Amino acid sequence: MAPRKKVLLKVIILGDSGVGKTSLMNQFVSKKFSNQYKATIGADFLTKEVVVDGRTITMQIWDTAGQERFQSLGVAFYRGADCCVLTFDVNNAKSFETLDSWRDEFLVQASPRDADNFPFIVLGNKVDVEEGKRMVSQKRALQWCQMKGGIPFFETSAKEALNVEAAFQTIAKNALQQEDEVEMSFPDPIDLNAQNQRDPGCGC
């Protein structure tokens, strides 16, 4: 059996400025957290190898700027994405309310082949902040995810590394599924040629 080729999965993290996109990525890739907030300019990416169902895959995780003035850069970064992570801060209601526009914007810019089944994941970050400051309940977030076709949802804390690993494992798994389905829908041209040689269909 021929060894499977190495898989590179492109993952885009979207959400308002300050929800913790960079912190989540850094926590997952390098197990580091910083209290210093520095806005991402444009976009940045990190890679990490993970094992999913016995396959080693490389995740290329793109962290994008949440400020509107950088959103015009979206097209170049969104194209070719295998999964999109929508992130909000559970202590900031507005960051949750903009998930719709982030999702719609991504679908317009990325133009995935099968928009209805494209894998999204929602992360409600900063659950380490005291309960009294929380503005978005788990129930409300889950309802939104259900309305959008059952998007997986995780409550995370980049600071305490809560659910970060589990969330990215699900991201990798769903992105890999998407990648496999795309491959299956494009038959290998060599096989087609071989088929034609075996069965020229000339009727002679």
Automatic annotation (TrEMBL):
One GO location term (cellular component): vacuolar membrane
One Pfam family linked to the record: Ras
Alphabetical keyword list: GTP-binding, Lipoprotein, Nucleotide-binding, Prenylation
An annotated Gene Ontology molecular function: GTPase activity
InterPro entries: P-loop_NTPase (IPR027417), Small_GTP-bd (IPR005225), Small_GTPase (IPR001806)
Database matches in NCBIfam families: small_GTP
Family indicated by similarity: Belongs to the small GTPase superfamily. Rab family.
Protein name (database record): Small GTPase superfamily
Lineage: Eukaryota, Fungi, Fungi incertae sedis, Zoopagomycota, Zoopagomycotina
